[in-house]
Amino acid sequence: MKNKSQGVLPLSSREIGVMQGRLLPKYRGRYQAHPVGYWEEEFDIASEIKLNCIEFILDYNDVDENPLMSRDGCARIAKISNQTGVKVKTICADYFMEAPLHSNSSVVAKKSATILHRLIENASEINVTDIVIPLVDKSSVVNQIDRDRFIQEIKAFISDAKSHQINLCLETDLNAYGFKKLLNEIGSDCVTVNYDIGNSAGLGFDPVDEFAAYGNQITDLHIKDRVVGGFSVELGSGDADFTKVLHEVVKCGYIGPFIMQALRDEEGLSIFKQQLKWLRSTLENFDQSFGI
After folding, report:
1. How many C-alpha atoms does 73 have within 13 Å on its Cβ side?
2. pTM for the complete prediction?
3. Which tens digits make up the pLDDT trace of 258-276?
4. Which of 121, 3, 138, 135 has its CA nearest to residue 70?
5. Which of 7, 67, 192, 262 falls between 20 and 30 A from 33, CA-CA?
């Protein structure tokens, strides 16, 4: 463990962000969604509670109403970001969970490719660093055919992503070995890793193994807690070993934002504030314990 004199930035001073919609009432009763029509309200709330950034969501539903899909929409994002000081550095592209790039439907795959191309171009206008592409649930690469098709599709975007200085950041349900193998087969430094603390805990994975495999390729980190084999719970009440994960975060030199994708309820804000307080206290205690 490096100490403060060796240049480790204290965890308590890192950027903390929120997954879009967590500070607002649910959009159409959905657990995670871009809040069409009232998304701008979240920036003022985030600023008031001293958050640094919001991870935007690109949904499959209402995709054409998402400001990320137009230059004018991105200009609106940039304007309110400048006004509030709350940045949009990362995008969670849930669209590709419903319509995978590697879909066995050529119609679906072609449209998804068009969406990703437009997203990369527009996101670069607001200085986004990472587009998270989920390979979980409906979009899991569950067999070799899916895996090979996804590798072929994602490779077609590497040049585009590099030219716009954006990472294509993968979130998968693969174990450490399987995920590392996939990254090696893609073979690009702009195809990186989204590490979700809660999802890994829920799958029973060991963070030491995961960070050993691809820690230096993590460019986005989701803060969540889950029980093994179960659902999200309030931070600190599940099976995620945050102390162990934070050790690995420091060791691998991760310097990106901590995006809170923590448990939410219908209203959103009160339960978020409770968990934000827990996270800030946990980061401060970690720094003190290890002299960072």
Report:
1. 19
2. 0.96
3. 999 999 998 889 999 999 9
4. 121
5. 192
